[in-house]
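Input record (one chain):
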Amino acid sequence: MREIEGARAAGVTIDDLASLCGVTTRTIRRDLQALEEAGFPLFDDKSRDDGRTRWSINGQAFKGVAAGLTLSELCALYFSRTLVESLAGTPFKRDVEQAFDKLASGLTPHMQQFLDQLPRVIATKADPLRRRTGRGTSSAASSSAAERQIIAQALEATLHSRQATLVYHSKSSDRTKTYLIHPYRLAYAQGGMYVLAYVPEYQEIRTFALERVQEMSLLTERFTPIEELPDAAFPHSLGVHSGPPERVEITFAASVADYVRSREWHESQTARDLDDGGVVITLQVCRDRALESWILGFGAAARVQFPPALVAGIARQLEEANNRYKGSG
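The corresponding structure, as predicted from the sequence alone:
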């Protein structure tokens, strides 16, 4: 459909479609027949110039659908809804589902049935870091309502530059404290919602997990942002952290080199191949729990070369893990 729509009024032949899609003309004929039977507004017309049959799509039939989306774009969205819904933050999941229902209204029931019966070529896996209960309370319904209220307040404060106070329980220090904050941005990462806010007390941007906010109050006073945040959330972290980046160098053994080399762990990474088949990966990232967990996940196949503090920290954790296993089994 994308190739046919791209050809616009001129249309495209079956031979052209077979070449563009890298399949046989028989496959194209079968696909066109399936699309026609499903109710898609395709039509064929014999060219007066060369007598060849060309296929086109009646875009007028869906001209007002979904803010001007083409039919192939609409189908792509509908077809990938499971992927998009799985990426949606829990507070917005219902809204995303409703949005897809509205998009689907632009398709006839026959088209919907056709798309639903296509093989599931996209599978998703739930985020293991997502909390199973909203805010750790006994009532899932009440916790969900409390989450939505806090998120709504955070959105209001961020959009209108309103100062706010929040009562926050820090997991690292295991204490609860009240902060005055200037909320700059909301971010969704690793199954949780976070607010990035300037804290006048510390004169720096800090990250607060909304699931650990016990109470939030908006103030009438407004603030003027004094720092410009990057477009991406937590750009210097492999996880959820806002620390400064530094050079990190790790050597990976040949047994995992292909796997490591074939993926982009961070946009700053560079790779240098070794004679023994291993690879050295260099990153410009902040040192945090996410980085350490990633390195430790490779076990003996990864060795940190730089910086020295990270080398010592990983070695210490491996030694502690080894001691815990001594004498077992």
